[in-house]
Amino acid sequence: VFFAARTNHMLELFNRGTTPVSLAGLTVQYSSATGTGNFAVGATLPNVSVSPGQYFLVGMASGANGAPLPIVDATGTSAMSGTAGKVVLVNSTSALACNGGSTPCSGAQQALIVDLVGYGNANFFEGTAAAPTLSAVLSATRAGSGCTDTNQNGADFTAVLPAPRNSASTLQ
Predict the structure, then answer these.
(1) Could you tell me if 69 and 7 are in contact, meaning their C-beta atoms sit under 8 angstroms apart?
(2) d(Cα 140, Cα 160) in Å, to the nearest integer?
(3) Rounded CA Rg of the chain
(4) Spatial contact of 87 and 28, defined as CB atoms under 8 Å apart
């Protein structure tokens, strides 16, 4: 997952497995870093498969700064914070009735979470620390060209200049 405030906020999905992965039935959901609002569906992903080593770019609501995104593979409506927040990839088309902080996610809700990234001062994240705080020019990018996922947001992500990749990008 990858975030940045450009002309649109965005996130990048990557298949680091050895077989194609279907996005059918998955949603991207967002919640503020420490607020009391629950996750809300920001993008329902299309019924497509992502090949091994392939990226998939989801453009979200308008950001404040920067260059336009390359061609996106899907669009969403979440207005994500450019500094701190929580984003989950969920195996459900329904919004989770939790936020991981003031409204903890039940075991059943957590089982629906395919991936979670808490960034900045988020109160819900994978591992022992959130991914770094972002800015209008810095995005959170996973190590290893997006391939590293040790379920430790603080260790897996660094804040760098964005270089978004979509499904037409070179396979890793």
Answers:
(1) yes
(2) 6
(3) 14
(4) yes
Q: For the stretch 4-36, what's the b/e string if a residue is b when 16 or more beta carbons lie within 10 angstroms of its beta carbon?
A: bbbebbbbbbbbbeeeebebeebbbbbbbbbee
Residue pair 119/138 in contact (Cβ under 8 Å)? The answer is no
Q: Six-digit token pair at 170?
A: 């070179």
Name the pTM for this structure: 0.93
Cα–Cα distance for residue pair 78/144, rounded to 1 Å: 27
Got the DSSP string for 73-128? SEE------SSSEEEEEESSSSPPS--SSSSPPPHHHHHHEEEEEEETT-S--STT
Residue (of 73, 116, 55, 66) closest to 91 by Cα position: 116
Q: Which two tokens stand for residue 29?
A: 């959901």
Query: pLDDT per residue over 6-43, tens digit each?
Result: 678 889 999 999 999 999 999 999 999 999 999 999 99
CA distance 75 to 11: 10
d(CA 56, CA 171): 11
Residues 63-99 as b or e (16 or more Cβ within 10 Å = b): beebeebeebbbebebebbbbbbbbbbbebeeebebb
